[in-house]
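Model the whole thing, not chain by chain.
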Amino acid sequence: MKKGIVSKLYVFLIMLYLYVPIIVLMLMGFNKSRYNSMPFEFSLEWYKELIGDTVLQKAALNSVLLALVTGIICVMLATLFILGERYLSNRAKSLFNSISMMPMSIPWLIMGLSLLLLIRFFNFDKSMFFVSAGHVVISLPYSLLVLKARVQSMDKSLEEMSASLGASQLTTFRRITLPAIAPAMVAGGFLSFMISFDNFAISYFLMPAGVSTLPIEIQSSIKFGFTPEINAVSTVIIGVSLLCLAVVGLIMGSSLKTMVGRSENK
Amino acid sequence: MKGDRRQIMTWPAMAALFIFAVFPLLIMLFNSFQSDDGTGSFVLSNYIRFFSKSTYLKLTGRTIFNSVMVTVISLIISYPLSYIMAKKLKGLKNIVMVLIIIPFFTNQLVRVYSWLIFLQDGGLLESLLNSIGIIDGSLGIMYTKAAVIIGLVHAFFPYMVITIYMALERMDNSILEASSSLGASAFTTFRKVIFPMSMPGVVSGIMIVFVPCLGTFVEPRILGGVNGTVIGTVIEDQFFEIYGWNFGAAIAFILLAMVLISMAAISKWGKRYDI
């Protein structure tokens, strides 16, 4: 029995290490001191200031829009890729696969700076187009991984059956393939959304002057003297992320259930 | 099958990756062989400069040392935790798993920033330690190498917990029972059976922590200040402070080489354990 307590204590201590920064951050959002210092005095001042802060709100909106665009483009590219992949020759397949995983192993610092050099090489102007392109390239491997795992575990005979029963390619796609991969499309898109939303390096290097995202705002407030408003906005971000996670979990769960239900009904 | 028209569907993703990932890297490679004085001649001077100055070699050493430290500490934290989760906790383990995954959904900069306010002089940790009487006065941990390691381990160890946990969870419990019924002590069972069988998880954990750690620049800069200089921060400075873009590109390629070499070495090492 004593052994069990030691293990649980160990787990508890590690969880404490994992959650200390998050808890501290949330607490300090409600602390009156401008310098996050002790003693603690409860105040909603920073949340009030957040409501009136159009710069942060604009940055938040930019982050969400950018992540949304990235997520949608990644899902479209990744879905098309995995649907077409099986028609590639083996050599092309292995080449394409290693290229598609490449941005996962290269530091984002290097990815971002190489895009910056590309922009300079052709004398382009920095624009949201390149920021989005950078976000898509670094997030795409994650969408691909999720979708690939789904397609590999998919029962291919269903598609063959549908075709042999006279369904057109489009019908087979719409009635068989799409419902089977839809949960993975949602999950893959969500993953890409999160990676883009979290990304600092690419946005920081490529963002045109005067435009910012939340991570960029947080970084500049660290650099130029921070206010607890950042704590408040971070708490909001964590809350929203967890909410998204829960929603996706529910969608995934129920769509999986529908699929199982369907196959049981036949 | 080879000429099937439907393979066109793979092209948009490939085009995006070629234009916005492969091609920019080629431009970066080209830049790394250009001198920064604007003559536009093809030179090796950037690479020679890096390898001939002891500052940069020391920096490389420090970057590798940081990654090694972070990996070792992550392993020390993660292995027992994964083991407890897989073998000791019954119903609780799913909750612990969720707790480990949740911080992945918090912003990287938010996490670094919260370490900053926790560790800074006059911050929460200082007043906590002062009130218990462990220290007297200021803490002085912020802007040291220790602060960088604390922040990086915090960012990376959950990945390692997941890979090791998966390896331990996959393990067939009847093998462990066989080992103990054949008279092996709990420690022998661990040393001869459990640990070797969990090695694939350990190796992929090391890969997933060590390699990205080499390219970090946000945590070292914010938590380490002047003491946090690593290759990543030097590259950033070359681009944004010193405007030695071509030299910066050369350092970026040296970092990339370090990343690729360590990936290859770790995966070669890991092949021995793949059963």
